[in-house]
Structure prediction request, 373 residues.
Amino acid sequence: MGFCRIFIRSCFIIVCTLVSLLGCSGKGPAIKHEELFSLNLGVMADELDYFERDGTLFFDKKIDILMRDGLFYISNPSLGKVMKFSNYGDILSLIYNEQSNLPFKKNDLGFRVTTWNFQNIGLLAVDNEGSMYVDDRIEVDADLLGPIPFDRVILRFDSNGEYIDFLGQEGKNTSPLPFITELKTTRNNLLMAVTRDQDTWKVYGDDSQGDLALPAVSLPASLVHPNDDPDITFQVSRITPDTTGELLYISAAGLTKSKTEVLPRMFLYSLAENKIIRSFLFPLGKLGEGFSLIGSDIAQNLYFTRDLVKNGEQTGYELQVLDSYGTVIRSAMLMHELKEPPISTSMAVSEDGIVYALFAYSFGAEVVWWRPV
Prediction:
């Protein structure tokens, strides 16, 4: 009886979700991409390089892109550098590892250049003052190198690219962190970092002075929905802070005790109340294809995308924007003809709802955006 009840409920949820989503505004208007600038493949100050010298790919870490106040911050982990660009592609500043780059003559470049011995660049974040935060690896004692090594810190640089300090588990200049899955600044200048070890997710919040602003929030790797069948367990796949610093968006896939898959669900966790306050199902495509979360805007709306494919070729992305209660409030088709299948794609959304992306190809990279119509 328990299995039948779960099966019937799952079927009912699937049908209701498909009817509600397909009965909305469909795929919405087509929005053509705008190519902002391109980056050549190479080792110069304003170029990207993700190949080894023998021509094999070097993607120990994915290239990260962040848009803030109309400026673009791009990391190049294989060269150990972070670049800041205008939206026309003019390089404005560079922080780079001297050991893995050409010896740039700082006075001849025409933009601000500083150096730092980056080891393994991860995620980027930028606050209201233009200070930049870089997730990086450091050398640690052997006792911190277990199955999940605690060897990550968040380097803090001022708006001129000068090093300030690093952030760890208890704020500035403290114990290193495990793997960092999300790094984000809020509108009130709180830096939010999400980490993952074997059994636990943790969320840290530091203020603009580098001091711990809220107690670390610990969440288990699996959840049971409070209003759902206790036989269904949801495995957490991602935790994303919102831009207000009030909510955590928890993406989770469900399984019954008999290992039957259940539709993925988004849980909303209130930092003020220290609990899950509601949840809703992920949006679905016409045939049940899943969407991926790319971020949220200042109004706490969530942006989901999935590939648009025509005649076997990708022509862009389908966008669905949901409010924090799971209601679809906008749909669109983000059109973009790829120059070739990209080696890597980094896509995100700004606070004001502009979707942007960096496509890394075999010959170079391009930065594009889709502005709302």
Summary: The chain is about 5% helix and 45% strand. Residues 1-25 have pLDDT under 50 and may be disordered.
